[in-house]
């Protein structure tokens, strides 16, 4: 049994070496092929083009008037109405900030998808551990049953003991089958995130997830400069220029054009100039823009406070889990030696096969609790490090 455990530890170490490269390959492929990311990209491009069109000049107008009288008069006017020129400059700056915010929102969607992929990979690693642990116990039970059939068991046993072992083997085999199905579902989910394409250079049998905690200031900076925070800040700048645009909306619109007329055999032509005073159309727009500016600024400040609080909470939980993991590893540090004692006790007939199996399972369950704590740690780590892509 000691040889089996040593091999298992070596395999886990090898998984640890390859886990980071495997996850990197996973994220690179999903980043390229994920349908939600592609949809968000196309949608962002469409919204940006739509935003640019908001600052277009209005279409020119052509008016043609023909009067059927004895003189047959004709009148034609071609004109263009534009807002005050400074409004276009101010609105262009406003739209520039809005489009930058759209780009950051696209990046935020990308962060969300890649975080979900990392969480799914953490789930896969955890299922692999459960499969390995259940398989290890199942192989032990089978080996004891084989010895019973071959009559090579050194300790005493009863028919009831054998029946308990067979029931245990059946339950363990069912558990392993369920875990294998769950593993395949997780792999299918990851491939679905990859646009339905198979994933290459990804270790689906990984038994360890590499979580490397950085300093608190590192994550505070990452959350403070997250795509969501940048998008909201750009929106505050856009709203600030929207206020300027609204204030300039009180300036008159200008109409310029050309007029041609023919009446009583005479032809005349000349320029057309007009002014439209926004006495009613711009009412309350400046105050509304100011209110939106204030709201967006407080929204950005609120996100900054919430992000700082979220970082501190997650970081504190991870530090606490690290301490618990370190202490628990010390507690179960002698588990391998304890397994050796169990083997010796079984060979010396000082323990029954059922008690042997029960104690052996207890030691493995102690390791299972450690793995569950590591699983919880990895989930929180992924949430804390979701912005590492932008660091």
Automatic annotation (TrEMBL):
<dbReference type="InterPro" id="IPR010131">
    <property type="entry name" value="MdtP/NodT-like"/>
</dbReference>
<dbReference type="GO" id="GO:0015562">
    <property type="term" value="F:efflux transmembrane transporter activity"/>
</dbReference>
<keyword id="KW-0732">Signal</keyword>
<feature type="signal peptide">
    <location>
        <begin position="1"/>
        <end position="21"/>
    </location>
</feature>
<protein>
    <submittedName>
        <fullName>TolC family protein</fullName>
    </submittedName>
</protein>
């Amino acid at each position: 049994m000691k040889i089996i455990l040593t091999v298992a530890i070596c395999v886990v170490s090898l998984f640890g070496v390859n886990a980071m490269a495997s996850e990197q390959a996973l994220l690179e492929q999903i980043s390229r092929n994920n349908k939600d990311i592609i949809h968000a990209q196309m949608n962002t491009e469409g919204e940006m083009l739509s935003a640019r069109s908001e600052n277009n000049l209005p279409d020119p107008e052509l008016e043609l008037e023909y009067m059927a009288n004895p003189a047959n008069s004709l009148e034609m006017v071609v004109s263009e109405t534009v807002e005050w020129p400074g409004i276009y400059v101010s609105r262009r700056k406003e739209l520039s900030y809005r489009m930058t915010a759209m780009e950051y929102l696209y990046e935020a969607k990308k962060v969300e998808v890649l975080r979900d992929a990392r969480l799914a990979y953490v789930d896969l690693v955890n299922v692999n551990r459960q499969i390995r642990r259940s398989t290890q116990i199942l192989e032990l039970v089978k080996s004891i049953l084989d010895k019973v059939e071959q009559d090579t068991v050194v300790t005493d046993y009863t028919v009831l003991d054998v029946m308990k072992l067979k029931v245990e083997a059946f339950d363990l085999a069912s558990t392993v089958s369920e875990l294998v199905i769950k593993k395949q579902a997780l792999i299918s989910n990851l491939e679905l995130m990859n646009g339905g394409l198979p994933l290459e250079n990804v270790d689906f049998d990984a038994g360890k997830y590499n979580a490397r905690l950085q300093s608190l200031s590192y994550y505070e900076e990452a959350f403070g400069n997250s795509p969501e925070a940048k998008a909201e800040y750009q929106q505050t700048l856009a709203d600030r220029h929207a206020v300027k645009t609204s204030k300039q909306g009180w300036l008159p619109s200008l109409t310029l054009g050309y007029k041609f007329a023919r009446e009583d055999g005479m032809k005349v032509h000349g320029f057309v100039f007009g002014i439209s005073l926004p006495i009613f159309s711009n009412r309350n727009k400046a105050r509304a823009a100011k209110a939106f500016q204030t709201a967006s600024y407080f929204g950005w400040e609120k996100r900054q406070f919430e992000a700082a609080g979220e970082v501190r909470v997650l970081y504190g939980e991870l530090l606490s889990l690290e301490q618990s993991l370190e202490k628990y590893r010390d507690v179960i540090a002698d588990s391998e030696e304890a397994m050796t004692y169990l083997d010796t006790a079984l060979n010396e007939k000082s323990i029954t096969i059922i008690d042997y199996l029960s104690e052996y399972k207890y030691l493995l369950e102690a390791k299972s609790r450690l793995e569950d704590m590591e699983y919880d740690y990895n989930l929180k780590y992924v949430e804390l490090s979701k912005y590492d892509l932008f660091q």
